[in-house]
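Need a sequence for this fold. Nothing fancy.
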């Protein structure tokens, strides 16, 4: 038996999120089904980030255990032959048997795209939130420093969150615009349910002049979901990937510890 780590990219448009659900197809259910068929044994993956319905990923992480003798680095090639075109494995490696993608320390990277122009662009319709009303990017940039560092982000998570703590640390947050496409990029040690989408929705209100950047300090201190802005649509959000830091040691071809960067930055 060995544990294999997959780096997974997907277009989340057609799926009810990552986690297995009774009411629709999910990324996890597809991986479980196709891996079980490929290896002819029951397979259940463990995902690093349980993205919401309609959210995309370039570098999500999942692990599974298998008794297959297929080399870990060949599994990505074999599995891609079984998967639909909107899910693609980017890499597969063997990891230590007790590695857990949600319990190991890592930095996660997200991007929220806003198409801010007079007319929509068809090729971005599934992965960018379209807004015709002009946003003031400079105001949005002025708001970014308020998010940095460790804060209680209870104002920026869904009331349905099951997290034991709403304290998280944001390492970086940037807002850049080029030819009408605004990219909000954020990294941190973890994100709450809907946190990035609420953060984006609040920045949009600031860009529209409906809030002032300095209001963010009070919003954070309020620890009240009603104090922050709306939850931006799921289609604009992409999990770029994550970075796990560790010591890499190899013995007889087996990987015990590793450093892994799954970011699909474009």
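Here you go.
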């Amino acid at each position: 038996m060995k544990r294999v780590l997959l780096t997974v990219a997907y277009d989340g448009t057609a799926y009810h999120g990552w986690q297995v659900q009774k009411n629709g197809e999910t990324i996890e259910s597809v991986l479980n089904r196709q891996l079980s068929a490929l290896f002819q044994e029951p397979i259940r993956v463990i995902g690093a980030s349980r993205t919401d319905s309609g959210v995309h990923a370039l570098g999500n992480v999942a692990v599974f255990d298998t008794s297959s003798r297929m080399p870990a680095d060949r599994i990505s090639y074999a599995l891609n032959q079984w998967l639909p075109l909107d899910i693609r494995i980017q890499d597969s490696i063997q990891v230590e048997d007790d590695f857990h993608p949600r319990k190991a320390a890592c930095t996660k990277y997200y991007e929220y795209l806003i198409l801010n122009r007079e007319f929509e662009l068809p090729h971005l319709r599934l992965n960018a939130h379209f807004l015709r009303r002009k946003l003031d990017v400079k105001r949005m940039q002025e708001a970014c420093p308020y998010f940095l560092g460790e804060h209680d982000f209870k104002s920026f998570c869904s009331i349905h969150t099951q997290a034991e703590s709403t304290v998280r640390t944001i390492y970086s947050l940037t807002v850049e615009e080029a030819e009408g496409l605004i990219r909000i990029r954020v990294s941190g040690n973890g994100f709450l349910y809907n946190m990035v989408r609420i953060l984006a929705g609040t920045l949009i209100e600031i860009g529209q002049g409906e809030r002032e950047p300095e209001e963010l300090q009070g919003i954070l201190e309020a620890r009240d979901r009603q104090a922050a802005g709306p939850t931006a649509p799921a289609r604009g959000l992409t999990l770029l990937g994550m970075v796990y830091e560790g010591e890499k040691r190899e013995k007889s071809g087996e990987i015990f510890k590793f450093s892994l960067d799954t970011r699909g930055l474009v």
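For context: DSSP finds five helices and 13 strands in the chain.
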